[in-house]
Amino acid sequence: NAGVTQTPKFQVLKTGQSMTLQCAQDMNHEYMSWYRQDPGMGLRLIHYSVGAGITDQGEVPNGYNVSRSTTEDFPLRLLSAAPSQTSVYFCASSYSGTNNEQFFGPGTRLTVL
Amino acid sequence: AQSVAQPEDQVNVAEGNPLTVKCTYSVSGNPYLFWYVQYPNRGLQFLLKYITGDNLVKGSYGFEAEFNKSQTSFHLKKPSALVSDSALYFCAAQTGANNLFFGTGTRLTVIP
Questions:
Q1: What CA–CA distance (Å, rounded) separates A17 from A12?
Q2: Which of A8, A13, A105, B80 lies in disulfide reach of A91, CB 3.0 to 4.6 Å?
Q3: Contact A38/A98 with Cβ under 8 angstroms?
């Protein structure tokens, strides 16, 4: 049982480039989400999904897209990277969207130059 | 605005002493409350949660948390701190699938 996996672990982009952060879970969880962690700001929800084919915006969705074609995978796309998107990104999953603890991936550290 | 506050950026405690990490929340309704721990270069790990019922919740690694509705607080406690408890601790409050609010984190250092 691998839990929640994320790739890559580190990434450096130039302003304007696009990329996809990968996230997968093998626990058959319905709920998946993406957060960014910035110093002094805790974690902020970017996008979330309550099941395959269903996604919605969180607190800070601008500049990011998501899709959920399978239960297992929930990729996060940066459309045109900006320095303000320099952050650590965490993917998480849980059995449902409420009152269940979330399982977090190890994170992706992204730097946009 | 809805939010979770962790008033202390840093908490230092001697090994063997009791520890408390404070959390207060300002969210609508009756939120679910969580504590997570983050070790260096790792994702967050679940410690415990309050859904309903007994105000004292017991969790992993000997941690417990006390829910106080009148003070809207959910403080994390442990009777005897270990050096290995040194980490970053996050409190979170949830009222829905897209309404999960994290505090800014408290760095706990346990001094040998």
A1: 10
A2: A105
A3: no
Q: Does B105 touch chain A (CB under 8 A)?
A: yes
Please determine, for residue A86, whether its predicted confidence score (pLDDT) is greater than 90: yes
Query: Half-sphere exposure of A100 toward its Cβ, with a 13 Å CA cutoff?
Result: 16
Query: Which of A21, A99, A108 has the most B C-beta neighbours within 10 Å, making it the best mutation to test the interface with B?
Result: A99
Contacts of A50 (CB under 8 A, 6+ apart): A30, A31, A56, A96, A97, B97
- Is A80 a residue whose pLDDT tops 70? yes
How far from B13 is each of B23, B63, B75, CA to CA, in Å?
A: 17, 15, 16
Quick one: which of B107, B81, B103, B75 has its CA closest to B2?
B103
> What digits encode the pLDDT tens for the residues B1-15?
788 999 999 999 999
pLDDT digits (tens, 9 = 90+) for A21-63: 999 999 999 999 999 999 888 899 999 999 999 999 998 999 9
A43·B90 Cβ contact <8 A: yes
d(CA B111, CA A7): 35
Determine the Cα–Cα distance for residues B63 and B77; give it in Å rounded to an integer: 6
Contact B41 A106 (CB under 8 A): yes
What distance in Å separates the CA atoms of residue A11 and residue B7, rounded to the nearest whole number?
33
d(CA A71, CA A78): 21
Count CB-CB contacts under 10 A for residue A71: 18
Of A35, A40, A106, the CB nearest to B42: A106
